[in-house]
Structures
1.
Amino acid sequence: MSATELLTNSLANFINIYLLLIFVRILLTWFPTIEWMNQVSAFLSPITDPYLNVFRSFIPPIGGLDLSPILAIIVLQIVARLFGSL
């Protein structure tokens, strides 16, 4: 395995793990009253919110529903597939 393959595979794996963290963060916002989830959410917020805020800046909530994570996840999936195909 060459260094380029190792780097692209590592980046693709990192992006997939980050996608999982974003997905967990989004699911945790549906259950804000469960005590232990607040601790997990407090850990994930500083990791995922900077990326999500990029999309929140130009996609306003519609009827109180934040749709920006959908676009954020789609973009990350496209980038992960690009790295995976290299």
2.
Amino acid sequence: MNLAQCNLSVVPVRAEPSEKSEMISQLLFGERCEIHTSHSGWAHIRILDDDYEGWCSLNQLGLMAADTAIEHTKGKKILVSQTGSVIEGSIEKLISFGSILYTEGQPTQAVLQPMEGRWREFPIRSSVTQLIEDAQLFMGTPYLWGGRSIFGLDCSGFIQILFKANGISLPRDARQQVHIGETINFREEAKAGDLLFFDNTEGDITHVGMLIDGKNVIHASGFVRSDQADHYGIFNRDTGSYTHKLRIIKRITI
């Protein structure tokens, strides 16, 4: 298996092997992928965390030797839990919430010293309270199709990175995430941390957000924001109208 690691702050994953192609997801610093094929400077990859596939520019990936990957397993795997943190090394990098660090196989002291109090060691033990606090760190982050970072993200990328930071792996897209967890049949029974999924006129799941209390949902729509949510859907405070129609509520145990 040919492995690669994201050694830049964030790397786009595209639908086709072209800089002009749609960005469908992103790799964050420290995340890994398997390279299936490569040609003309592009690699077709599978992201190890969620099995998502797409194309990355080869010069934006760090190819991993087998002994390096093995060396990493001897140390700690750490998740960055601040919205933006600078790590030091040959070149300083600003990395996003959700990035991954390893205490073996890279310049440990240079990387970890600035991260004091800003990281969580795997396996992560968390709570709904922490999940909500993490979500609120992203308030105002711009919407970006295919994004998964503090620099820009889409609705399902937002949810995926929140749950990753709290010890739970979710699929990449809302249409996949809706199949995870326990169904909550009545809006009145929903509570903080539950996921709300929304559909379009054709019945396709097109949006996801998370309840932060009994009445409000946090979601990425234009930017990460909080709006009222009831059994009809999301009521936008700015426009005074409903913007998303509720389809189903799911609970994922933290």
3.
Amino acid sequence: MFQIKKFKNIFLIYLLFLYFTAIYYLFIKHTGGLDSTISEWLVNYYGGFTRRGFSGYFFAQIAIYFDISIRFVIFIFQSFFYLIFLILIYYFFRNMKANLLLYLCLFCPLFMTYHVAELEILVRKEILIFINFLFFLFLSLNENLKKYLNVYLFISIPILLLIWEPIIFFLPFYIFILINSMNYKNLRSLIFSILSIFSSSLIVIYFLLINQYDVQNETLMCTKLKEIFNERCYMSLLYLDTSIKENFDSLFRDIKPQHIFRYLLIYLIGFFPIIYLARNLKKKIIFKINILNNISIFYYIIICSIFMPILYAMGLDWGRWVNIHYFFIFCSLYFLLKKGNYNLNIHVSEKFKKIFYIKNKVILVFVFIIFCFGWNPKTLFKGDIASIPGYRVPYNLIKSINNNF
């Protein structure tokens, strides 16, 4: 009990630091920043129906109604979204048992620290995907509420598709959680349930695919933004008329073997704790669909990640994709533990230490700090590995506060 209480306090302090840092930089950015942290949220329907325009149009209407800056509206909602995200994270992980492997997974630089280490990805639209998935996990854990799962997904996923359509690549993780929550009686009921749940999403996807959005639509949107909000188009606002083929061409024109090698190492090193975690989970649940009992948790992860290569081929923000991918895998695995569908070997931490011949506590702490706070990938695939975010983030924060105040 003491260890859990001590962990709760440390974890809460860690999350409070992340929130304070995020709010500070979001405030700085909203006053005139020119990166995608703001531009992505400015995308709207003033030039016609387009992908990712729902939230921007909603923010624009609020700004007009209250006669305030649209950037300030975005800042308020970003602050709110990030707060909700951290609250959900706290309640989801707060009772984590003292376990080195779980701690390495939780504090991995590919997870929460990444949001403040790489400010370009701070509270981008995937934050809503994170919130949605965490709410989904909480509903799935509650026996009295999980009957609302179908309705929740039927309504929420189409809305999220209008805000950030790449959520489609992560729907297998939702299906994986549904399988573990509902334990469908046969394959027919599973297929029928999935089709009914995502039928509304398929309609939205259809309209997104057939929608024609060209330079004239983009010009009209930019003109309206200038007239109404005195905002010019930049960064994310200028990619709406870009086709999938153009994205592919852009990537394959610039990518080099060292980029692929670097991200293979990022996956190998950063994902090693959760891969080891997956390999040491022992199944307790007996699925009614027998074929599901023959698939290991490791292969479930691979199946759920089947669309990830498409996402990497479509966009240059590989650091973001790693962060999102890590979030879905780790939260899904920890859900299985909380749900009681799987058990973790109580000796897994000791086995993990033996892999690296770690016996001394001082060396253990050193390895933990280096792994969790000693590195992180950059946002774009061309970027090299950033060093010591555990030092750089607080140092840059203090330096920025001194310069601005």
